[in-house]
Amino acid sequence: MALQPIVTLENVAKAYGTFTALHNINLEIGAGEFVTLLGPSGCGKTTTLRLIGGFETADSGRITLAGADVTQQPPYRRDINTVFQDYALFPHMTVAENVAYGLTVRANRKPPEERARRVREALSLVGLADKADRMPQQLSGGQRQRIAMARALAREPKVLLLDEPLSALDVKLREAMQVELKHLHQKLGITFLMVTHDQQEALVLSNRIAVMKGGHIAQIGSPSELYDRPATPYVADFIGAANLVPATFLGSEGGFARIRLPDGAMLSGVAVGSGEKLREGQAALIAIRPERLRIGESRHGLPLTATVVDQLFHGGRFQLELRFDQVETPVFIDVHRSSVADDGAVPQPGSRVPLSVAAPDVMVYAAEAAA
Amino acid sequence: MKARTRQRLSFWLLFSLPLAWTVLFLILPYLSMGMMSFWTRKFPLFVPDFQFGNYIQLFSDPQYSAVIFRTMKIAALVTAYSVALGYPLAYFLVFTIRSEKLRTLLYMCVVVPLWVSYLLRAYTWKIILGTDGALNSALLWLGIIDQPLDIFLYNQAAMVITLTYIFIPFMVMPIFTALERIPSNLIEASQDLGAGPFETFLRVILPLSTAGIVAGATMTFCLSFGDFVAPVLVGGPSGTMVATVLQSQFGAALNWPLGSALAAIIFALVLVVLQVSSKIDRAGRVSMG
Amino acid sequence: MKKAYGRGRTLLPLVSALSIAAPSFASAGELNILTWEGYADPSFIEKFEKASSCKTTSTYVGSNDDFAPKLAAGGGVYDIIVPSIDTIGLMRQAGFVEPIDTKKIEGFSDVYPEFTKANDVVAEGETWSVPLVWGSISLMYRADKVAPKPDSIGVLFDKKYAGKIAMWDDKSSIYWAARLLGFENVYDLTDEQLETVKAKLIEQKPLIRKYWATAGELTELYANQEVWLSNTWTGLQSKEVNALKKGFEVVEFTPKEKAEGWMDSMQLVKGSANTDCAYKFFSFMLSAEGQCGIVGSSGYFPVNPKVVSGCLKGEEAEAKKVNNIEFVKSLVMWQMPARLDKYLEVWNAVKAAP
């Protein structure tokens, strides 16, 4: 990695009683990066963030910040600030007092003029300069979220930790805030480390995403790497939508494989997703992004046939639920209304439809990797 | 129409009893107390009248103001000691004890004494503090003193100790509740912003538990202010409190008008205390959202 | 005064019903007696109940000051009250009691005439109470701690015994201080004299360990080493303290300024529905069974010397002053102070003082 690492985790482990939250995590975050820890609840992403923030202490391993070992340092001795999930604004202080808090603490008391200037700047950065004298409970959720940002940023930390910063907002506001967050990151140039369970948010915002599962990092990489080359079916399923269909591995040459679907269809030249070695005749799992599947035959694509089970109306598009013969798991594809003459042209339930997919868009994994 | 009648009927069925109770046992007694405070003592009893003599007597005779001020002093000391001891205890329970079970157990230990007769608990202090009591025995045994001391019992200090012991659960309970309601992420946020534990306590925890302190202080103050058992059991010759005087006006002296006037003054004082505390409380109260 | 009182009276039951628990009304044939502990001991009360087929229920007071408030608050509950001689006049003046028909009481004529003819027992040409038992209030001290042997009330004001003195929490403290100061009529002191008494009692406060309120409390104060000196209900607490065998003895003495005397008598509450039973009770209490019974349970002196020969003999009879009514003359018999309110105010001011 070209960037200077600002946060590193080396073999960091954490257990709560008998529950192991993190198994020897290794992670390096470069200065100025926007890294997201993504995963379902209980995957260890929040624990990782809390360990970096200093709210939890690692059982073993080492955490460094800008080269210094901070593993045993309390939060108030770390040059890191956090935007908490439900903002954690002090209810007995005005917005300005909240933002100024980190500049008035004994360890970091700034002169009044500087304090006032930085509060003003932080508030205008989030566009709420006019709300300085309000109490937090007089503000909307989105405004509170921004105040929480301003409060953390006023301290000009090296790293900003964001714990599900947008999860409490409604969909529309969340999308607007995503844009703002991205601009803020670009403008400030400091390192952002965010925790979210929302893959779409992760994709939009991050330079790199670490997908976590069961206390491990399943895969770390850029959003497109994760989307286009998921290391496991789990990652494929978590990032974006994926149709997972069981198959049999028949062999490979030069990184491309041949497989057989349960209905007998043979597909060759498909991509091998994981680094694992697949043996001939081994049960495998293929992953296909919905948007890579097309209805109709194509000269370049691999031909498939499926039965329409259901037709779901989504406004701008229809979602079709399909089944391959001999396969239990459903397969979904989208039919955009702009791509058909009229809604009647969309295949009806019960009809059999030909499908095609480009061979490199089919990724094959060992079946047990799906577990 | 029928439904409305039935609704009205059920409303009255539901509320007439509590309403009658309130009127009969709260409002009427207060009114009769206020009325009687203008009556005149006339040997051997008293007669209805409208005059301010009782109030004049209460304000001009220093024995009454002396007792009121003494009672306020004792109640204030009890309140202060209860905060000083009760706050750290509640803090310890909420923030230091990690185990939920242990915390509940210890909290119960604080509250359980309330189930034991108040008289019994006050009496226990008499046994501890007496000349022949446990404290003196311990000091003698340790060789710290060679003669039992009589400075522990039958004085105002003994009253303050006893009342503090008896009323401290009323301080711990609301503070405990207030501290428990503080979201842990506010404490984390404070530390995240560079404040150490003590600064976090002063700037976040303490202001956010003001409501609990005010509630506890109000209760402790009012309960000690009206107490009449401690003066009898552990108070000395100078331990007369306002409730004792009140009791003697309604009892021995058979001067209900003067007693009513005194009660009216106490009533007004308590109202002032409640008013002040609700002001502080409102200023300190913030929604945890 | 009577008229003014009457107006107040009409409002009292209303007010008391609202502010204090509603009174329960006694049924006929059941005597409700407001009296002192030890005065309704089962040892003799059961005999009365069997003989008369009247049931009794007794409620106890801790002080003579309890009678008026109890009657004022819950009129109609009690049939018989047993105040001391200084309080029976107040009961009459307050209209709480009815005159007694002495002819209906057996043995009434055998009671010491010093009591049956005393002021307030007889007033307005009628008899208002039936004497029951009498005694004195003297001083008491711990023999091992107080020396030389005291002979004056002055010992209660001796700085040598600071913190070891107890006084009865009662207006009678005024009488003690007044006698020490040499004032003549302790029941009718002038304002000036009362001021002097008040100052004397306030001066005494730092020496006081505790103002005792009940007989049991004083016993406990001695037993727990808290006090060495006090006034006492002659015969009662000294017996109790010495019976505890705490390794010391207490001794009673009559100071040269005289001890106080008292006599408790039974009064019939106005409007009682049980006058028949009440008169049976009066007669019983003046009989051998009643007098011996109450002397036995309380330790005080009988008022009817003719009937106690069966239970009090020789030294015992002498100790209980049987046929020694001369002893009364050595006592300052209690009377209601001429200005009761003033006395109570002074006593309250002493207690309120810092």
UniProtKB/TrEMBL annotation, chain A:
Native source organism of the sequence: Allorhizobium borbori
Entry GO MF terms: ATP binding; ATP hydrolysis activity; transmembrane transporter activity
Keywords in alphabetical order: ATP-binding, Nucleotide-binding, Transport
InterPro entries per record: AAA+_ATPase, ABC_SmlMolc_Importer, ABC_transporter-like_ATP-bd, ABC_transporter-like_CS, Mo/tungstate-bd_C_term_dom, P-loop_NTPase, Transp-assoc_OB_typ2
Pfam families reported in the protein's UniProt record: ABC_tran, TOBE_2
One cellular-component annotation, GO: ATP-binding cassette (ABC) transporter complex
Family annotation (PANTHER family): SPERMIDINE/PUTRESCINE IMPORT ATP-BINDING PROTEIN POTA, SPERMIDINE_PUTRESCINE IMPORT ATP-BINDING PROTEIN POTA
GO terms classed as biological process: putrescine transport
Name used for this protein in its record: ABC-type Fe3+/spermidine/putrescine transport system ATPase subunit
Keyword Nucleotide-binding recorded: yes
TrEMBL record, chain B:
Domain (ABC transmembrane type-1) ranges: 68-277
GO CC aspect terms: plasma membrane
Repeat listed as a keyword: no
Gene3D superfamilies registered for this protein in UniProt: MetI-like
Pfam families membership: BPD_transp_1
Keywords of this entry: Cell membrane, Membrane, Transmembrane, Transmembrane helix, Transport
Any GO BP: transmembrane transport
Listed InterPro entries: MetI-like (IPR000515), MetI-like_sf (IPR035906)
SUPFAM superfamilies: MetI-like
Claim: Transmembrane helix is one of the keywords in the record: yes
Protein name: Spermidine/putrescine transport system permease protein
Source organism of this protein record: Allorhizobium borbori
TrEMBL record, chain C:
Family matches, as InterPro entries: SBP, Sperm_putr-bd
GO biological process: polyamine transport
Main location (coarse class): periplasm
Keywords: Periplasm, Signal, Transport
Pfam family, any one: SBP_bac_8
Gene3D superfamilies: Periplasmic binding protein-like II (3.40.190.10)
Source organism: Allorhizobium borbori
UniProt-annotated location(s): Periplasm
Protein name: Putative spermidine/putrescine transport system substrate-binding protein/spermidine/putrescine transport system substrate-binding protein
GO cellular component, one term: periplasmic space
Signal peptide from the UniProt entry: 1-28
GO molecular function: polyamine binding
